[in-house]
Every structure is written in C-alpha cells, then in structure tokens.
C-alpha cells in the first residue's frame, strides 16, 4: 500500500519523508501552493486599531508565518496586552514564538468549534477581534463571534493558489504506484481533488482509505462517496504521522 499526501509543500514532503523512514510507502502531490496574501499590507493598520484586551486569532500556521514575516519586513511589532488565540498546537506554538506572549488554544479537538468553546471567548461583547487567515475558508468563527457582539475583521495574510493538475495521467501513475490511501487535510482540498478525478476512475478512488483531520471533513467525504474514512483529530504532521504509523500496513 502507498499513501498519497495531498497537503501543500513543505509539509507534504516532510510527512512523506517521515513515513518512508519507518517503512510506509508514501508520495507527495500538493493540490495548492501557499503565497503571501494580496491584502497583507493592511495588517499593520488593522493591528493599530486594536486596544488592550482585544483579540488576535490565528486559524493556521501559514496565517502566522506570513503575518510574522510581513511585520518583520516592515519593522513592526506584535501588539502587547492582547488575547492571542490559535487553532491547533502548531499554530499556537508559531504564534507564541512570533508575538512572545501567551497563546490560548483548544485541547484535544483542533477546529473552529473547539476554539469557540474556549472560556476566553465567552464574553467578548464590543471587543475587537482580528482573525488572521487565508483567502476563503469557513466563516464559522466570524459569524459566531459577531453573534456574541464582537467587532470582527479579517486579515488574509496568505492565499491558497490551486495547482492546475492533469488528473488523467496522474491517476494512471497513482494506480501503478499502488495508491490505496489518501491524506487530505481540508474540506476544500477534498472537493478540489475529487473534482479532478475522471469519472471512470471514481470507483477506485472512493475505495481508497481516506484519512482526514476532523469529523466535519469526514462527513463531507461520506457525502461525496468515499467508503473508508478515518478521522485523525488533527491536521498537524506529527498527529498524521502517529496515526498513519498505527493504521497503515
């Protein structure tokens, strides 16, 4: 069995190397590349509008990475006396390193629902919230915090650029390489990947063992037609590696 890793570089290559090192055959095929956001030049102005005890939320590692790089390039600093919150351990660690302040993140589940359950976000009426994210994605955090009467804004610090892939030769190659398992780390990537597959190959594809980070993505996969789905509980490489090591032979 060979595992197809579809997350963006460099994470896909890092996970493939980890799996190959322990004897699990894996190959990388990113579906998109990540670039600096078109409107990142608004970040400093948005930060300056925040007051002490306002909130900065990072929804992904890339959101932190591009924000931090931009602030450094402009000689700007992360604001003090903020509530810093992140989705997931990797994002929280990156944000804490960048801002040099405590960062809260949900334990166990690494998704928007778990983040919204944090006590820090229970009473944020009239507080300003700046969400660092990529282009597109879920609106749940924005909608929920707005409903709690917070003043919420986005800064798209990075953008996802889908790769133009010719799936017909790719599928033939994957079948020759005995791909029987797939790692897909977001609903958007799952939909994009499924849409690439030629109709005649969908039955084979749906029968591959699909590994996804959350129940939400698992439900989406089931709706699309995937038959063998495992929920890892995280999109972080270390969590994926540990789970695959125990569940792929």
UniProtKB/TrEMBL annotation:
Q: Which Pfam families match?
A: HEM4
Family recorded in the similarity comment = Belongs to the uroporphyrinogen-III synthase family.
The record's section on InterPro entries has: 4pyrrol_syn_uPrphyn_synt_sf (IPR036108), 4pyrrol_synth_uPrphyn_synth (IPR003754), UROS/Hem4 (IPR039793)
Q: Which gene encodes it?
A: hemD
Which source organism? Photobacterium aquimaris
**Entry EC number(s):** 4.2.1.75
SUPFAM superfamilies, alphabetically?
HemD-like
Keyword set, alphabetical order = Lyase, Porphyrin biosynthesis
Molecular function GO terms recorded: uroporphyrinogen-III synthase activity
* Function according to Swiss-Prot or TrEMBL: Catalyzes cyclization of the linear tetrapyrrole, hydroxymethylbilane, to the macrocyclic uroporphyrinogen III.
What protein is this chain from? Uroporphyrinogen-III synthase
Functional pathway: Porphyrin-containing compound metabolism; protoporphyrin-IX biosynthesis; coproporphyrinogen-III from 5-aminolevulinate: step 3/4
* Boundaries of every Tetrapyrrole biosynthesis uroporphyrinogen III synthase domain copy: 13-230
Q: Taxonomy-wise, where does this protein's organism fall, top ranks first? A: Bacteria, Pseudomonadati, Pseudomonadota, Gammaproteobacteria, Vibrionales
Biological process (GO), any one: protoporphyrinogen IX biosynthetic process
UniProt xrefs under NCBIfam families: PRK05928.2-2
Looking at its record, which EC class is this enzyme?
Answer: lyase
Residue span of the signal peptide, if any?
A: none
Which catalytic reaction applies to this protein? hydroxymethylbilane = uroporphyrinogen III + H2O
């Amino acid at each position: 069995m060979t595992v197809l890793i579809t997350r963006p570089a460099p994470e896909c290559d890092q996970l493939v190397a980890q799996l190959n090192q322990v004897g699990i055959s894996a190959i990388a095929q990113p579906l998109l590349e990540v670039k600096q956001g078109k409107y990142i030049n608004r970040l400093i102005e948005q930060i300056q509008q925040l007051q002490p005890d306002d909130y900065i939320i990072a929804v992904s590692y890339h959101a932190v990475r591009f924000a931090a790089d931009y602030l450094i390039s402009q000689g700007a600093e992360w604001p003090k006396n903020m509530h810093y919150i992140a989705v997931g351990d990797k994002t929280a660690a990156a944000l804490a390193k960048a801002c040099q302040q405590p960062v809260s993140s949900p334990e166990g589940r690494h998704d928007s629902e778990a983040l919204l359950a944090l006590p820090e976000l229970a009473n944020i009426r009239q507080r300003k919230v700046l969400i660092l994210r990529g282009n597109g994605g879920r609106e749940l955090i924005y909608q929920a915090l707005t409903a709690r009467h917070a003043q919420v804004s986005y800064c798209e610090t990075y953008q996802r650029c889908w790769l133009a892939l010719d799936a017909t030769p790719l599928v033939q190659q994957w079948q020759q390489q005995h791909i029987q398992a797939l790692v897909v780390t977001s609903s958007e990537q799952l939909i994009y990947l499924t849409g690439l597959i030629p109709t005649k190959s969908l039955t084979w594809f749906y029968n591959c063992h699909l590994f996804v980070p959350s129940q939400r993505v698992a439900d989406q996969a089931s709706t699309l037609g995937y038959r063998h789905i495992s929920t890892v509980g995280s999109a972080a490489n270390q969590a994926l590696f540990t789970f695959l090591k125990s569940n792929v032979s």
